[in-house]
Structures are given as C-alpha cells and as structure tokens.
Amino acid sequence: MNQFQYVRPTKSQAAIEAVAKDPNATFIAGGTNLVDLMKRGIATPQKLVDINRLPLNKIERENNGLRIGALALNATVADDKQVRERQPLLAQALNAGASAQLRNMATVGGNMLQRTRCSYFYDLAMPCNKREPGSGCGALEGINRMHAIFGFSDKCIAVHPSDMSVALVALDATVLVTGPKGERRIPFADFHRLPGDTPEKDTNLEKGELITAVDIPDGPFTKYVHYQKVRERASYAFALLSVAAALDIENNTIKAARLAMGGVAHKPWRLTAAEQSLVGKPATEASFRQAAEVAMQGAKAFKYNAYKLKLGPNTIVQALRTAASAA
Ligand code: SF4
Question: Which ranges carry the FAD-binding PCMH-type domain (predicted)?
Fold first, then answer.
C-alpha cells in the first residue's frame, strides 16, 4: 500500500476543500471497498479525507419522503422502523448485500460509490480500461460470465455491484451533493454512468463533490415489494443478477409498478417500459411474463453470460410473483 496523508475534518466545507484542491485526495467513510482497492494498488490516493466526523448520519422525514444521511450505516438503514414501514424494498435490498459485518461498516454514500467487482479490474497483470484508460478490456474476450447484457461499450462490459442502488433507482431516489460550486440534486437514474468511451468514470460526481444524503419520496410501494437476488452462495456474494420489484395493487389490478435490475449493466438498470406494460393489468403470471419479455428487449450476451438472457426474465417473474403475494 502506498503512503498517504490522513485528515479528519469536522466541517463539510473543510472536507470538500481538501479533496477539491488536491487531485490525489479522496474521501473515505466506511472504507469497505476503498481500503481493498488501496491494498491491491488499484487506488493510490495520497491523501484520505475521513468524513466520519461530519453530521451526515440521520434518517428523517423531509419533503414528503425520507432523507437518509450519506453516513448512515447500511445495517442501521435496513433496521430503521421508518425505512421498513415506508420503503421496505430498500430494507430488503440492503439486507441482501455483503455480510452483517460489512453492513455495520459500510455507509449509504459509500455503497453507491463502490466499484465494479470485475476480476480483471482487480488484476494488475491484466488490461483494464476502467483501471488504466486505453489499456484494453480483459473481460471482452475473457471469462465474462458476471458481465453486462445491457448498456455496455467496446471499452467496458462491467456491471455495478450495489444491491442498494437497484432499489434506490426503482424508488425514484435523488442524491444530494455539495461541492465547490454549491449544492445540487441528482436524480438517482442519472447518478451512475454507462461506460461509453470513459469507463474510468463510474458516476457523474465532480471532483470535490460530497454526497450528503439521499431523498426517497413517499409512494404506494409499502406492501407488494420484493428484492430478488440470484447469487452463487446464500450470503456474502455479489449478484449474478437481481430484480427490485414494487407494485401498487387494488382489486387484483396493478395501479403502478417499479422494476429495476442489478448485475446486468454498468449502472442500476431501471425497466420503465416493463413497468408501463404492467399498469392496468391483473396481477397474474401472464402479466408478469409479458413485462419480463419487454424488460429483456435489447439484451445481448457475451461468450460466458448467455445464461443471463434466461435468468433475467425468470427472475423478473419470480420477483413480481413474490411481490404480489407479499402483503
Ligand atoms: Fe476493466 Fe471494464 Fe473490461 Fe472489466 S469489463 S476489464 S472493468 S474495462
């Protein structure tokens, strides 16, 4: 691990300035991904700005919704009474992620900033455009069974690893950030990026911008929800593929639907056309199967991940079926 400076400011403005002014500085909170990246020599910051002393860990009612501070721990959010009652999909997605130990360290802000688990990204002997722009992509012709089926480019086919982010994009969350130019609100669907020609950039955050909170608007998705995660072992594994499903059902008719997938793209993948296809339909297997077909339009597999083309629709149907019977 390279040597680095370490500072612990108590004011947000001081933290932002410390990172904005130094091209080799970065924020650290729980450190559950960043420290791994540093140990392996993938991230080599020369200054760590520890933000754990900033007052950003509250979960509170705000603007007809929930505001969750960026430093709230994943475990705390998943166990919070308001979150479980008002946004149970988020609680389920958080509990599907990582392990109990990691959820007790990892923060909400850090969770959405975690980097891909593409094995070539972590292997310094292999080319990787995300780690070293212009070096190539080891996964394109490599073992790409964990990789994307939507939204990829010829520069990168990695997927975003967060479970929490799949629920947040489905729930129309907004990310609140403060930076050198002031505050701004980023719709969650615009927070992460597709790889295009710049896969080294995971998000639309600018240098020095600090995530302060996430806003989730109240909605009708308090009963019929389900986060379905398919993985290779029962816990502490990243998703091969996941589906966040939320329904508003009245007299067996779907009034509104939310659907998003994880493990399929460089960002959490919202399925708006499939959502629309469900509105006004009965909550039946046939409706769910039709939505799954709509959802998978445009999917394209690589040599080792063609199984996702079948696993995707089956997981969507299973998530919707379980959500519809969840109340
Ligand atoms: Fe790197 Fe992306 Fe290729 Fe993985 S898929 S090796 S992260 S460029």
Answer: 1-221
Cβ–ligand 1 contact at 268 (below 6 Å):
no
Domain 224-324 has CATH 3.40.50.12580: no
pLDDT tens for each residue of 289-312: 999 999 999 999 999 999 999 999
The pLDDT tens digits for 146-187 are: 999 999 999 999 999 999 999 999 999 999 999 999 999 999
Confirm or reject: Cβ of 213 under 6 Å from ligand 1.
no
- 137 in ligand 1 pocket by Cβ < 6 Å? yes
In three-state secondary structure terms, 280 is coil
pLDDT of residue 31: 97
The CATH 3.30.390.50 domain(s) of the chain lie at 224-324
Q: Determine the distance separating the centroid of ligand 1 and the alpha carbon of 131, expressed in angstroms.
A: 8
Q: Are strands 241-250 and 182-187 parallel, antiparallel or unpaired?
A: unpaired
Q: Judge: domain 5-52, CATH 3.40.30.10.
A: no
Q: If residue 269 lies in a helix (H) or strand (E), which one and from where to where?
A: strand 269-270
Residue 1 has pLDDT above 90, yes or no: no
User: How many whole angstroms separate alpha carbon 55 and alpha carbon 51?
Assistant: 9
Distance 154 CA to ligand 1 centre (A): 10
Ligand 1 contact via 302 beta carbon (within 6 Å)? no
CB 278 within 8 A of CB 247: yes
129 lines ligand 1 (CB under 6 A): yes
Residue with tokens 């509105």: 279
pTM, two decimal places: 0.98
Residues of the chain with CATH 3.30.43.10: 5-52
